Amino acid sequence: MYFSVRQVEADTDFTLIITFETGERKRFDMKPFLDIGVFKTLKDEKLFRSARVSFNTVAWDGDIDFDPEALYKGGLPLGI
């Protein structure tokens, strides 16, 4: 199954509120990834909060994106 992101909101605590095409909403915590590779640049809150949907996943400037399946599996359900 492919998990397509339809909407994303970046919160001030470095979490993402993600709506998937199924209508499911989940909160994904990015803090554990902020010391890894390209994600280090997302420690800049302004850059982090610029999260957007691109090609069915979450992306940021600088060619940074995150696997939609990992977002789905690692997210905590918020309800529909």
Task: Record keyword descriptors for this entry.
four-stranded antiparallel sheet, mainly beta, globular, NE0471 N-terminal domain-like, 80 residues, three-stranded antiparallel sheet
Report the total helices: 2
Quaternary organization: single chain
Share of residues in strands: 35-45%
CATH topological fold name:
NE0471 N-terminal domain-like
Which second-level CATH architecture applies? 2-Layer Sandwich
Question: Could you give me the name of the CATH homologous superfamily?
Answer: NE0471-like N-terminal domain
Shape: globular
Element-by-element helix/strand order: EEEHEEEHE
Strand order of the largest sheet: 1-2-3-7
Helix content: 10-25%
- Radius of gyration (CA) equals 12 Å
* Count of separate structural domains: 1
Structural class of the secondary structure composition?
Answer: mainly beta
The description of the largest β-sheet is:
4 strands, antiparallel
Please report the distance between the alpha carbons of the first and last residues. 19 Å
The average pLDDT value, as a whole number, equals 95
CATH class category: Alpha Beta
Number of strands: 7
- Stretches where pLDDT falls below 50 for ≥5 residues? none
